[in-house]
DNA sequence: TTAGTGCTGTTATTAATTTCACAACACCTA
DNA sequence: TAGGTGTTGTGAAATTAATAACAGCACTAA
């Protein structure tokens, strides 16, 4: 089984390969890509070992080939269909950011209880009323949701999503969701992240 | 030295204590708070040990007291002054979300190169022109920055921030910043997070 | 061809983090 | 008082993650 951390780093390696390697570079050494990603060369080689990719000594890794290998591993055969639930400030920012990006992550719908938001097209995808949630998720075969609703309703909305068949949730509400273990949850609590940064920033200040 | 993970969990414990514990509850057992946070009781006890807090057997932890202990540990003596750089969709969402929250994290300024954004008050804090960055950061004694600028400029903006004296950065641009090691960086790459969720969601789908 | 160089893949080692397990303690009840 | 129950704090064990180390290969140059 492959780890959490490894998957996240693979995603980053691919992004670097696609965005930060110029077209004429056809191969790269582990220390080069590792340094772009701020990880150790050993770590990078180990991550690639996990997906069964091999470079060649003296030659390194073929950029095109490696990019595709990571893609095959991360993306699977068909695009992942994604919904964003809660089209407030954050939800809209995420939709507009992700729309028309990576073709294998498709934002196909969004949901909101607020009638001034639902029924419109926001950031390139249709925003539906929350009542339609189960229907649309099943019909559109959506497997992943981004949850950006106010925290008091996050748990109950998550349960509706899971009942409707969602298999993974990227949760921005600062509540640790309680879900059955087959559902994968990734929590992104902004306040906790900022408090962490503030704590360590103060540590370095005080060390002076 | 206290770990990364522990600090993040402490922040979460505090949030739960403040928001999810009703006023008449005066004490809690480790298994109760642990279950709210979805961690093991042993983990919780160990985290509290790290900050030198002690409960009492049979009684558990005093809610008020524990909340304050975590606060003393995380917050330090004075509020942390924070700036948001790049007032696009995401920057504005974060500012409006954080303004008027936790009093020890103060958003005191924001910055943008776009003249239609700078010079105004956005989400309760003044948005300055990017030219003023160094001046304001020094004058306002800002130690932490949230970075929400387009990724091609993220590295150069980060360097300006560090020159101006910033000690910690919460980075939303999907580039791994290269910075001197005294500066604490927390990367929040939305795409990588979503790809990770999509990957594990697919795993559970295929396991069926 | 042969020796040399510099890389990869993988095993071994070390480090970090989490969980286990249990003595010691507080409190309740009789 | 004494015995029972249920919790904490923490050393030890287990697990997980990261780093180091190195054999072996590919290529170069003489
Ligand atoms: N804005 C940020 O930067 C930010 C940062 C961190 C965390 N968050 C969290 O993300 C969540 C949303 O933040 P926001 O700033 O976008 O808030 P917001 O109030 O702007 O948006 C919330 C949206 O959810 C909708 N909504 C409410 N109940 C709903 C339901 N039951 N089903 C579907 N939609 C529902 C509302 O109509 C609204 O449009 C909150 O939990 C917040 O704590 C936001
Ligand atoms: N919107 C999202 O949900 C989201 C999610 C993940 C990551 N991101 C990342 O966050 C960043 C911002 O995203 P966004 O959607 O808010 O984009 P955006 O284009 O809406 O906002 C970017 C803002 O930065 C400003 N800017 C440009 N150059 C600047 C400079 N040198 N100094 C200061 N300000 C500058 C622009 O004027 C603009 O207001 C991007 O790197 C993006 O990849 C956004």
Summarize the structure.
Chain A has helices spanning 4-19, 30-37, 41-50, 63-75, 89-98, 133-139, 151-163, 190-207; strands at 27-28, 61-62, 80-85, 105-112, 121-122, 125-129, 144-147, 168-171, 184-187. Chain A has a 7-stranded mixed β-sheet with strand order 5-6-4-3-7-8-9, with helices on both faces. In chain A, helix 1 crosses helix 2, helix 1 (4-19) crosses helix 3 (41-50) and helix 1 packs across helix 4.
Oligomer: homodimer
How helix-rich are the residues of chain A, as a percent range? 40-55%
CATH architecture of the largest domain in chain A: 3-Layer(aba) Sandwich
- Determine the most extensive contact between two protein chains: A-B, 65 and 65 residues
Reported for the largest beta sheet of chain A, the result is:
7 strands, mixed
What do these coordinates show?
The structure is a homodimer of 208-residue chains. The first copy, chain A, is an alpha/beta fold and 208 residues long. The first copy, chain A, folds into 2 domains: 4-75, Orthogonal Bundle (Arc Repressor Mutant, subunit A); 80-192, NAD(P)-binding Rossmann-like Domain (Rossmann fold, 3-Layer(aba) Sandwich). The first copy, chain A, is built from 8 helices and 9 strands. In chain A, the strands form 2 sheets. In chain A, strands 5-6-4-3-7-8-9 form a 7-stranded mixed β-sheet, sandwiched between helices. The first copy, chain A, has a two-stranded antiparallel ribbon with strand order 1-2. Chains A and B meet through α1, α5, β8 and α8 of A and α1, α5, β8 and α8 of B. Bound molecules: nicotinamide-adenine-dinucleotide (2 copies). Chain B binds a DNA duplex (30 and 30 nucleotides) through α3.
